[in-house]
Fold:
Amino acid sequence: MTTPKDIPPIPIVDFGAFLHGNEEERADVARQIDDAFRNTGFVYLKNHGVEKEVVDKCFEWSKKFFALPMETKMLAPHPPGGSHHRGYSAPGVEKVSQHEYDADELKKLREIPDFKESFESGNPTDTSQPNIWPPDTSLPGLRPFLESFFTHCKTLTHSILSALSLALRVPSPGLSPTHSASLFQLRLLHYPAIHASELANNQTNDLNDDSKRIGRARRSRINAHSDFGTLTLLFQDRVGGLEIGAPDTPGLFRPAPPIEGTVLVNVGDLLARWSNDRWRSTVHRVGLPPAISRREGMVPDRYSIPFFATADMETVIDALPGCWDEAGNPKRYEPVTAWGYVQMRMAALYNS
Structure:
C-alpha cells in the first residue's frame, strides 16, 4: 500500500547559481528544476534574490491588515464573482474546488466554507484588473510596500521563466515575453485559529480518514486543488499545514513544510498544458499542521503569501515544440487562451 513516505520529497535547489552562475551552472539549475517538476510539480528555491528581511516585512504588513476591523477591511471589497480578482475577501466567500463548474455541485461544496480571508493585488499598471486598496488612512504604507513586494516577486518570476525556457529548450527569447504584461497576482492569506475538530477531512490522508468517528466537521482551510496559471511562488510562515498530493495515488498527501530562506514554487495548469504534462500541476491543500492533535489541539493562525503568475491575456497555450510528437506523445490538450482558462476556473471560486 502506498503511504505518504512513498511520495517523492520536494527538492531544494540553489537558484543563486542560476542568477549569478555561468552557462554550465545555469543549465544545471534548469535541469534540477526540470527533474523536480517532473517528479512532484514543486521545488524549493533558496538564494532566490528576495531578501529575508523583505519577506518578513510582508508578513508583518499582512498581520497588520488582517488585524483591522472587518468594516475597515471591507472598504476594499473583492467585487462579486471572479472576473475582477482584487481586494478583500472575508472568510467563507471563496470556496476552492478542483475542476467543478456545475452550479448545484458548487453549492454543495460551499456548505463547508473555506475558513480563510484574503487580500489580492496585482500589477499597478494592469488596467484590465485595477487594484482595490483600502483608504491610505486605514493602514498608511500598505500600498507602497505591496507594490514594491510585487516588483520583487515579478523579477524573480521572470528569472524562473528563463530557467524553465532553458529546461524546455524554448528558443530565445523564451517564455518571459509571453508574460510581458506581468498580469500576476499577489495574495495575502490568513487562516484564523480554529479547533482541529472543526476542520473537514483534509487533515489526514483520505485513505485512512477517521473523520466520521469524530463528528461532522464544519469548515475547511483549502481543499485539494491545482493552481490555474503558469506557476506559483509561495512564502509560508512557520505554522505549516500545506500538503501536496501523490502524483499517481489520488487522495494521498504528504506535508510540504516551511523551510527557512526558501520560496516554494509549483507548476500551474497552464504550464502543465504548455509542457504537455511533462511537468505536473500537482494538487495541494491546507489542513492540519503535523504537530497538532486533531482531537485535542487548537490550530493556530496561519499566514501565507502566494504570488500567481499567468501569461498575457491573449497568449495561446498549446503544447510547445519538443514536448510532443505525432508518434508516441501526441498533444493532450486543445489550445486555449491564458485568460479564457483562468477566468473559467475563477468563476467557480466565488459566490455571485
Summary: The CA atoms of residues 180 and 306 lie 20 Å apart. The first strand starts at residue 12 and ends at 14.
